């Protein structure tokens, strides 16, 4: 997705990375997405090296006969495709497609101006129909979908048009829908109910992943997420697609329903299915879950909202993130941000879906907010794991039970008593404080309470990149 709001009727020159393009202004271009494009270039370089199984693939800018084919289905200005041609190693061909004839005219001119005719092929077609045409004999090694809004209408054709083990790079910008403002719209577009929760951005990623998996499963295919990113006003996922009837059956155990308490914000995930194993830890058969939460939250006695299904398995591949960190360099304008975000991602707990926030926990009890180090130390001292998530700088992602989290907050409240005037009858905080604690909590400093990325001083959480930043307005061409 690439509209610069100024001078829509005039030709503008844009320089980004190694590309220099001209656009009429009526074609979509968003400068805030440079981070998105930089990260995608790094990811494609790592993918090309893995996919071609070669350490000595041809240099960027040169055509590699054994290299990868890339489709940018919604190309707009052609900037992304041109940058891929100039900055991704091991490329055989890139198809830069757009349904707008004006956009295609810009693409053709920009391809010529950047001397990448040997790598980039302009295409004027409906993105969905183009991918359907390529779903049989010819398939793409990588497909980039960066639409204005929801990508779901492109997913059916995309999961068919990508090669075995190929890469899908998919963006969604309809965050109001995915983050819980319109659960009915989210269900109609993604097949899942979104919830307005503190961890809404992670839930958005997991809704998108389950939607892609659902489309893939219809054709005996399944996805393996490599990287799942929430940044600025959008989310973006990098997934590989494979074929296996057996793996498709396992999808049921990877998807979960979310029970979210309307009082204290605690959450419970229940998988749609389970895999039953024998004594040798070998799969025996598939089953359905038998235990569900009670009608009300065990911590504060308030009712649940039910959302999902969401992707409950891993969001990232640690090995892939490590390779991305090794591949990135200061030649990218957004290097510091990429380094920081990837470092936080590398520290995220993989088996702990969703997260709490510090202000959510203290706000529920109306208590003075503890330091992040204090809460993280208490969790670690209790024998559990904890991490940040790249989506929120006050996030608490942990494999500890919610009971421990609230016992930690009650122990903090005992040291910093809350005024009883602030706790009304049947208030979530009142009900939580009235329950007896089960865990002994220690706030003694734990050496792992400070994350490595914080100690190294990386730019972990980005401020708003530009004035009036956002997804922009839809292209008029």
Automatic annotation (TrEMBL):
InterPro entries found in the cross-reference section: SAM-dependent_MTases_sf (IPR029063), Trm1 (IPR002905), tRNA_met_Trm1_C (IPR042296)
GO biological process: tRNA N2-guanine methylation
The protein's enzyme class: transferase
Entry GO MF terms: tRNA (guanine(26)-N2)-dimethyltransferase activity; tRNA binding
Pfam families: TRM (PF02005)
Catalytic activity: guanosine(26) in tRNA + 2 S-adenosyl-L-methionine = N(2)-dimethylguanosine(26) in tRNA + 2 S-adenosyl-L-homocysteine + 2 H(+)
EC assignment: 2.1.1.216
Gene Ontology CC annotations of this record: nucleus
Keywords: Methyltransferase, RNA-binding, S-adenosyl-L-methionine, Transferase, tRNA processing, tRNA-binding
Domain of life: Eukaryota
NCBIfam families linked: TRM1 (TIGR00308)
Family label: Belongs to the class I-like SAM-binding methyltransferase superfamily. Trm1 family.
Protein name per Swiss-Prot or TrEMBL: tRNA (guanine(26)-N(2))-dimethyltransferase
Lineage, uppermost ranks: Eukaryota, Metazoa, Ecdysozoa, Arthropoda, Hexapoda
């Amino acid at each position: 997705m690439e509209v610069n709001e100024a001078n829509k009727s005039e030709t503008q020159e844009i320089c980004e990375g190694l590309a220099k393009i001209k656009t009429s202004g009526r074609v979509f271009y968003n400068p805030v997405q440079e981070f998105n494009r930089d990260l995608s270039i790094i990811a494609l370089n790592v993918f090309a090296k893995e996919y071609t199984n070669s350490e000595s693939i041809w240099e960027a800018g040169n055509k590699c006969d054994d290299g990868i084919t890339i489709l940018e289905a919604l190309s707009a200005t052609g900037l992304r495709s041109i940058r891929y041609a100039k900055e991704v190693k091991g490329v055989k061909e890139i198809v830069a497609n757009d349904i707008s004839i004006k956009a295609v005219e810009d693409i053709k001119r920009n391809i010529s101006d950047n001397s990448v005719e040997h790598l980039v092929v302009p295409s004027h077609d409906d993105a969905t129909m183009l991918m359907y045409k390529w779903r049989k004999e010819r398939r793409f090694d990588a497909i980039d979908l960066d639409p204005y809004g929801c990508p779901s209408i492109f997913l059916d054709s995309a999961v068919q048009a990508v090669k075995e083990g190929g890469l899908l790079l998919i963006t969604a910008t309809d965050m109001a829908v995915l983050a819980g403002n319109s659960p009915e719209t989210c269900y109609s577009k993604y097949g899942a109910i979104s919830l307005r929760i503190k961890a809404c951005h992670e839930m958005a990623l997991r809704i998108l992943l389950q939607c892609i998996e659902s489309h893939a499963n219809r054709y005996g295919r399944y996805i393996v997420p490599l990287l799942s990113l929430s940044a600025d006003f959008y989310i973006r996922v990098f997934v590989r697609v494979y074929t296996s009837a057996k793996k498709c059956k396992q999808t049921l155990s990877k998807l979960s329903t979310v029970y979210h308490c309307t009082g204290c914000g605690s959450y419970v995930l229940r998988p749609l299915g389970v895999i039953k194993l024998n004594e040798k830890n070998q799969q025996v058969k598939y089953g359905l879950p038998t235990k569900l939460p009670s009608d009300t939250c065990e911590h504060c006695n308030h009712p649940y909202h039910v959302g999902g299904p969401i992707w409950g398995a891993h969001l990232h591949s640690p090995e892939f993130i490590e390779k991305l960190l090794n591949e990135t360099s200061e030649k990218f304008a957004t290097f510091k941000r990429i380094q920081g975000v990837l470092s936080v991602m590398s520290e995220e707990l993989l088996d702990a879906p969703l997260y709490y926030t510090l202000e959510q926990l203290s706000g529920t009890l109306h208590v003075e907010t503890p330091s992040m180090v204090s809460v993280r130390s208490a969790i670690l001292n209790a024998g559990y794991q904890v991490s940040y998530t790249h989506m929120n700088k006050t996030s608490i992602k942990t494999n500890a039970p919610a009971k421990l989290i609230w016992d930690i907050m009650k122990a903090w409240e005992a040291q910093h008593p809350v005024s009883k005037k602030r706790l009304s009858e049947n208030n979530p905080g009142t009900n939580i404080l009235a329950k007896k604690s089960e865990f002994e909590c220690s706030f003694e400093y734990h050496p792992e309470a400070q994350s490595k990325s914080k100690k190294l001083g990386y730019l972990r959480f980005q401020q708003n990149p530009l004035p009036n930043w956002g997804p922009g307005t839809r292209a008029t061409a």
